[in-house]
Amino acid sequence: MKKFIVTGGSGFIGSNLVKYLLKKKCFVINIDKLSYSANPYNLKKLAKDKNYKFYKCDINNKDKIIHILKKYKPDGVFNLAAETHVDRSIENPKNFISSNILGVFNLLEALKKYIKTSSKKIKLIHISTDEVYGDIKKGTRSVEESSYIPSSPYSASKASADHLVRAYMRTYKLPAVISNCCNNYGPNQFPEKLIPKLIYNILNNQPLPIYGLGKNSREWIHVFDHCEALLKLFNKGKIGESYNVGSNQNLTNINITKKILFIAKKKSIKIGKNTKIKFVKDRPGHDFRYALNNSKILKTVKWKARISLEEGLSQTFDWYTKNKVFFKSVSKKLYTGRLGLKI
Hints:
With 343 residues, this protein is α/β, with parallel strands linked by helices. Helices cover 39% and strands 17% of the residues. The chain starts with a strand and ends in a 14-residue tail after the last helix.
């Protein structure tokens, strides 16, 4: 049985990855400090699973990380521990520096020390974002060799973490792979993000706030597809390499909003009189377009996204409709900025 550590395993992508790995008959150790975007609700059904262990721990706690590594001797580590909400990074960048840069540094130091004393092979999959590439011109897509031009404190902190991982791979021969993924959506996503926010507001007769004119374009992937890609990168990804994890499914924010409204009507969800698109002042430094060239992972790892945007959005809408208590479970952690939810 393969053993994996998932850092940030109580968050959106992390919790879905934990469940995916357990379905694949793996033993999973979840390390999470339970910050605002983490939610015990995401994994509450796993409390009695004999193949699952949880540690409340910050990845900045190097000694504790080393202790866990020595105790379980995992085959791999998936690093998803990160602050991710761009608006929060603009208002309070310090937390992002601490988690996304210093946290990765301490995790790398822990792995470096552990590798020196362990005979068992281990592999780090460091999960990053397409936002590190910055604005992408229409008609082009970022390749793995594209320059990093981050625009927000969030993307800058993730870019810094990527550079640290690359440095440790080269200088210390640390066995790692970097994954740069596009926008995820699906079950358990923190409701400050666009898609769950829109779904919640539709279900609760609230306006649908959209930055600027809604023309900013994003590439979307269902979190289940992303989880499958991450395990494939562990199994087949070449150490020292980075891989773009993309779906080639690009939509503007306004079109995503219209799609979700269409899905709601198709499901006979009543659209209240207050549920109208509301354009709000644009985010500072807002990137216009993200788009990934994913040919490398398609050719070398033999992975591609399988869930269409229409199918994925419909399934996601159903999940939030059936799990309305999820919104209440995170209500005290919600951001109170311009696009904050009213729960």
